[in-house]
């Protein structure tokens, strides 16, 4: 047990299963499935977190019935073909001392008939607000089949070596749709009253318990509150939790928040929500039942987890993104290496952001996600020969490259012309509600302290000097600079870029127009910052709506709510034509109408950058090995900088 985190590190028994600690890697889809089956990639992914010290792992949702094909890579839990994959996963996880449950689910109306060309199933014909497909109200024959398929899927999970199963009865599930008066309008024995609405869950629970026997662990995940009219309130869910305990079928209760297809930002809270924002829900449930309760929701460092347990709000802590970002979160927490945890930023860019785009899960900070077999801990071997490596540029790409090269045993010198490391991430984290983005630099700085990298700050090394010193390898990570826009007036004194605004002390006038050609935080963050300073702010965007990229990171809803309060004017579908004095010209993308904005004090350009690659080209042919990484290749986001830094540094 860890002295610093005695609650989080203490063992606990769930049913007959002993867990070594209370850190849970709760369910989250990975899109690793091939032919809708689990496989080796899952095994290495979960295995790495088991090796990293997690107490309990719960798989991504596995679908119990062919009528549920909510997205392309959903795993079929009802198929015996899943067994080889299951055995690989459970074998790998058990080998490292963790326990693993399979999450079973049917998404009900929170899905689509696009894949299986069937009507989606629902408690009642109530369309989901995201998918907008009116479901078929399932009849008794289908209910009986669903119950049989739950039992069959649970039995297969047991055969596959899992220690238990968890029903998703939370943010995206048919079981919750039956529990909730918002989606269950039935008049038969499965609706009409709280007792009727819980009947399906009871019958599924009974069938599964009968199939798997008394010793297999059985849990259910509930949304603490639905946050919709006529939906389940926390009081309702506390009553449901009591009824579930009374069934004497389940061994634990897991929790989540809201309805995924209504307000996903409540399920995977972005950094503008407070840490541990959902703990009050598990707390209320825990006060009402004796079953162990798992909490969740932006709990990303061991102190937060410890506090939640010490204060009695839950028995176990779900920390999902914290362990995506650093698979060794638990082990580092309990071994006194807490400062070496690559703490999650709650940026949602590559975990939920990629999965939402039907890509495999990733992490902006952890290039090994989904590639544990080749890049997991211990997979990158020490270099056969020590090289002298120069890294030019100390942004995230350069820092990560220096770290990876030094970890392979090379002698590394890192040159940065500024007096601080961190590159443009430092400026991005100055925007409102974006400060945690800067934690990435703190994480890298802590890790750099563990390797003998020579860091030269305020040192703008010349390419001739590098060529003269003749290191074995040079990695250029000199980043990017704003592009000059080919439109009139951009060289006027009252026009500046986001980077200039954030790095120079430029006093702005009262009326500011932001021209957004990126659709990300550059414009929305600056707009908020200026509105907070009392400016009148308008954003012009050529996109269909302002802040398009914020949908991917689940920041869109909350940013729009704040923008409205701060009276930021949003003008989409307009292309910027130029500036003439204090007048800005634009054109509506579809109608072709010419538009003018007059009496504008300052124009701020959120426009694409260009690679700052002059240094790289000046060294070409002059050193033995020359590489360039990150924005210096092409301006992109943090994930590209970090993964190219890692790949290049660890391949030397
Ligand atoms: C990419 C991603 C996919 C998820 N998929 C599931 C899922 O299949 N089943 C589920 O119950 N929760 C799912 N969740 C929700 C997580 O279990 C968890 O509640 C959420 O990430 C908040 O916890 P955190 O702040 O510790 O990350 C998913 C979360 C993420 C980030
Ligand atoms: S992409 Fe961002 S939110 Fe997701 S796990 Fe990585 S750091 Fe955390």
Task: Walk me through what this model shows.
- This protein has 652 residues and is an alpha/beta fold.
- The chain folds into 3 domains: 364 residues, TIM Barrel, CATH 3.20.20; 135 residues, NAD(P)-binding Rossmann-like Domain (Rossmann fold); 113 residues, FAD/NAD(P)-binding domain.
- The chain is 32% helix and 19% strand.
- The protein is built from 23 helices and 28 strands.
- An 8-stranded parallel β-barrel has the order 3-4-6-9-10-11-12-13, surrounded by 5 helices. It has a 5-stranded parallel β-sheet with strand order 16-15-14-17-28.
- Helix 1 packs parallel to helix 2 and helix 15 packs parallel to helix 23.
- The longest helix has 20 residues.
- It is globular and about 75 Å long.
- The model has no long low-confidence stretch (mean pLDDT 97).
